[in-house]
Amino acid sequence: MKRGLLKVLMTGLTIFLVSCGGNKDESKQEVKPQAKVAEKRVMKLSTKFVEDEQTAKTLHIVANKINERLKGNLEVQVFTGGQLPIGKDSMEQVVSGANWISVDGLNFLGDYVPDYNAVVGPMLYSNFDEYLAMTKSDLVKNLNLEAEKKGIKVLSLDYLFGFRSMLTEKEVKVPEDLKGLKIRVPNSQLYMLTLEAMGANPTPLPFTEVYSGIQQKVVDGLEGSLMTIYGTKIYEVRKQVSLTNHLLGVSGIVMSKKVWDDLNDEQRMVIEEEFYNGSLYNTEETIKLEGEYQKQLEELGVKFNEVDSEAFNKAIANVYNQFPKWTPGIYDKIMEELNKIRENN
Length: 345
Ligand code: G3P
Hints:
Layout: H1 2-20, H2 24-35, E1 41-47, H3 54-69, E2 74-79, H4 87-95, E3 100-105, H5 106-109, H6 115-119, H7 128-134, H8 138-149, E4 152-168, E5 182-185, H9 189-197, E6 201-204, H10 210-215, E7 221-224, H11 226-231, E8 240-256, H12 257-262, H13 265-299, E9 303-306, H14 309-316, H15 330-344
Parallel strand pairs: 1-2, 1-3, 5-6, 5-7, 8-9
Antiparallel strand pairs: 3-8, 4-7, 4-8
Residues 48-50, 53, 105, 186, 207, 224, 228, 232 line the site of SN-glycerol-3-phosphate (G3P).
């Protein structure tokens, strides 16, 4: 009888000890579920790029890597081709503190910190490297700090997609050739003033409406990079590329500073690392594809022509004097920085 009772007591004690975590390993398992109680954060990433464009492909890779590494506690969902708000509307999501990542031109950042427009002003850079060095300068780092004060965390400014040129029906060689032509531009003061100075009649339109806009003669043509011309198949409706290289096609990746501050160290590290790695990959692919795309476009009947660069350079010079909100002297500071970059290369 006594032996039987002892056995029952021993069994009970064992069960108790195990359930209380008497065993060290078991105690670890107990803590885990509590640590995972935090809800998964879903971040929507919104971009204008369509699935066939390299930047969209890169963003999918970046999101997949972030999601793999942060399994369970943060997920980035990519929405391409303007399925969700883009441009100004996307920036509004960011500054309102939504779980949102916006991928668009720096000109939209310029609505909050005007000097960003100066950094991507017309005819500034001769190659990608000059621009990529500029985004590492103190000048741009200070703009990023200004952006933080406006509630915007800049994750990258380096998602390049090529210099932008004219895509029209007829060949453009000098500014006079653009006279009277309605040219689609993104909804941005920088683009409006630049295209106006170049001699065109700039017409803001979301990219999703450009193809039909050309067919319905709402616009006569557009300006864009080879990556855009090929990736969006817009070459189907316009076949003459005039190589003005007037603005740099590049996207900034931004999110809410408030959301950023809410993330834990691991989430911040992974997001930063993967968007950085993605920017390197994107540039590499862009450089590789630009050459291939030009050949393929030529085979598809697209013609390319050089322009009188000096004439266009002269035409845009005054654009830099038309932004009253820019910090006085910002253009000179950018040129000073650019000259330093050029000396070091
Ligand atoms: O998919 C469109 C993208 O390649 C270019 O857009 O507005 O900068 O001309 P946007």
